[in-house]
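Morning!

As promised:
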Amino acid sequence: MTRQTLLWTLLALLSHWRRHKANLATVILGLGIATALWSGVQALNAQARRSYDDAAAIFSGENASMLVASRGGLFPQELFVKLRRAGANVSPALEGSIRIDDHQLRLVGVEPLTLPRSAPMAHMRERENIADFFSGPGRAFVAPETLRRLGLAPGARPLTERGRQLPPLAALEEAPPGAIVVDIGVAQRLLGREGKLSRLVVADDAPIDPARLAQITGDALRLVGPQEDNELARLTGSFHLNLTAFGFLAFLVGFFIVHAAFGLAFEQRLPLLRTLRALGVSARALIVAMLIELVFFTLIAGGAGVFGGYLMARALLPNMAASLEGLYGAHIPESLALDASWLLSGLVMASAGALLAAGSGLSKTLRLPVLSVARPIAWREAHHRYLRRQGIFASLALLGAGAAFFLGESLAASFAVIAGALIGAALLLPLALAGALTLGERLSRRPLARWFFADGRQELPGLSLALMALLMALAANIGVGGMVEGFRLTFTGWLDERLAAEIYYEATSPADAREIEDWARAQTDIAAVLPVWRARTRLDGWPVEVIGMTPHETYTAHFPLIEATPDVWRALFEEDAVLISEQLARRLGLALGAALDIPTSGENFRAHIVGIFPDYGNPRGQLRIAHQRLAAKFADASGVHYSLRVAPEATARVMEEMQRRFGAKIARILDQAEIKKLSTDIFERTFAVTAALNTLTLIVSGIALFASLLTLADMRRARVAPVWALGATRSRLATLELARVMMFAAGAALLALPLGLFMSWRLVAGVNVAAFGWRLPFHMFPAQWGEVFIIALGAAFLAALLPTARLARAAPSELLKVFSNER
Amino acid sequence: MSAFANAENLAFAQARAPLLCVEGLKKSYATPQGRLPVLRGVDLTLEAGTSLALMGESGSGKSTLLHLVGALDDADSGDISLDGVALARLTESGRARLRREKIGVVFQQFNLIASLTVAENLSFQARLAGRRDALWEAELARRLGLSALLARYPEELSGGQQQRVAVGRAFAVRPRLLIADEPTGNLDEAAGDAVLALALDLVAATGCAFLMATHSERLAARLQRRVRLEAGLLAP
């Protein structure tokens, strides 16, 4: 194979695209969109994961270990003093959450002089102004981006929600996004956690022996490795897996476009390939030239796709950041920072997709006989072969889905069931449509109607990939849309029951809380004062919140329960009993009646489970015990959260009076409507990214249909022209063409309905349960089905409008080209 | 007696009046180099029951003339009248109606509908025109030797068989004019001869006019008249 041969072969191959611009556009568009959607999602995930790692590594770098309270939460500073006196090289830290205006921020208190050298924050030791950090008003370091987000200038001293003033702000590159780093003493004061620490950073060159640790601190502290400490990465894993799954679905839809376009290009280029072979180009040279062509496409379309992915990620990032912050308290910078590996992975994905899509064409080229068979293409035989092959693959995909269904309930198995069902049903679609067309042909009497159906079977293979993509997008729309709507319905009802009190507030300190409580109990407008104290613990390695409940009809009449013993409320308040959140029960494999050892400030509290309650949207586990027991068992319970039962008409008055009377003693006060709005906002944002990906997938499938129709237009003209010549008008034929595409889309929508419902059911009963631990009731939304049906017909109408309008307006000379080789 | 004579005269007059009348027909095509004239003013008449071979070299405009006469394309200028109907006055739907009711077309490439059976292809145009005659279709199938092939699909037939189906489809509607563009171009000599013989039999049986474009002197000799197109004009 000479360079000359290769060059001319390549030029001959590329000349095809000059004459088939629509086909070229389809390849570039499909590959570009598939890469864009995939790499966009990867960019979002990479950005979030890097933030979690940065947040986790703030103290420790990559290798250092930590000491944390055995059951989570805070521990006394004396433990640190004890360890230092015993010669342990540890550095104290305290983390908490503060709010400045509407921005929730992570406050991090450190002691820079003792931080291990590997910790990113240790670099600030080398700063000239480090002395300012401890002396005078101190310094509050923030990342430049966070400073911008707060709309504040360096040197500003904003107030927290507790009315406490921060030290002057200063920009520091090493500070993690969404965090404010201050001296440990300042952090304790700002958070009202004097004498408390949340962790001790162990110097990586002076590890602590666990036995010695137990000698000094008893079982109060436990040693955790750097990876184990990355709680955010653990909690958000499912969120990102969901995102990846949708990204992959979108990629698959885009891949279908490319596959269809390459398949068509191969068919159109068959004579050219044969001529090249007859002229002495070896099969190997032909393959090499086609591969070079493929690399060329990958670089152009993949490159554009990666850039598109960047733009998409940039547009979706604020919503995802808000959702992650609302759900998990994770701070993600809103400006996208990406590295070369992301760019490379996007191009690799584009190359793999292009290679797979072109694979069958390449292998056929390798086996291509130089002389074509004398017989014209046996269309019917090919059609039957095609349907048989589709049927076999569909059966395999459905069998795979069935196997995954019976194999397990893990997240991967749940996604495998959905993927198998989607692919199986998509492969079945052409079979179903071919069956419907045959039936239609048998039932119709009029000649054009018979032709309409018979010719549809010929059109089907060319359109099937685009229709399969449409089916998948529609099913995903019904499935995810149904799940989200179901979630919304359940969530709203659940919020109404769960948030029965009229006012919720958080006092600045336990002392302030007592003062406010005493006042509230004396007010005639306030029917009940309900302490909602909370403490933290850890069960089986998972962070768990323990919340106290008082015997009141707010709970006994309203608090939603999934399962409960008949005398749940009596047992909760009179016995050693506990209510457990659904996701925690599932994670720990616990059922009603099971006993649970809850680590407390002292001895473990052994309680039996008397109820399981839904706790949608909460990634952390939650336990509810009687308030009296919480106060007795957890010395470090927050003691600052309360809710009030007030006559609705008195709510605003009571809130105003509380704010006027107690001012900064109240850190936060919200009425029922506000807290519901906050919760629903978090909910909406959580699904904003999913909804956007869903819509994009639908748009992509519409484009796939449009591109396929545009590419098929020439072939269609050859089939339509004889019927026109025999006496049918162009407008009538164009109308029939439009009707046929819409009929195909309607078929796809009809099949998408049961498939979407199945997907919705698996999302609700499989994916959500495995990913988040909660199971929602399964709802059906017929109005949404109608909407999706109309979307399908609308998409088909729009996609077919241009090609059919062209047919309707085609000059007779264009149609006559089909019949004559001469003028 | 006089009534009979009048009717006879009228019948004679109708028979003698040309079925197809073409006057001053011009047609050109747009090319990157400007407009390319293909027909420069063609005059032609054809009576019912007669046949005419249209000859000429490649590019002389034979197919273009057939397409214009067959109401498949519009002329730049000039008149065509078929069975007393001026084509220029017809709308798109009027031309489509004329095609399906009065014109039979046989193409070089057969242009059968691959997704329909031979029987369905045979009856297709007649059904479009709403003039299906099952007895006539059976007769056509018998004459064309297609009776045993009716349930097959076009791809299962030889080239000669496919062209016989195309001829049958054209005659099923009992056209007033049959046009054929190199109908034997894709067939071997024997098959081509056989197809033409069948077509001429049917022309005689139905009394339609027959206009055929061909390169072959031998085939042209089997038709009643022949004319030659040269540089867009009919040679004297």
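Confidence is low (pLDDT under 50) at residues 1-15 of chain B.

Hope this helps with the figure draft.
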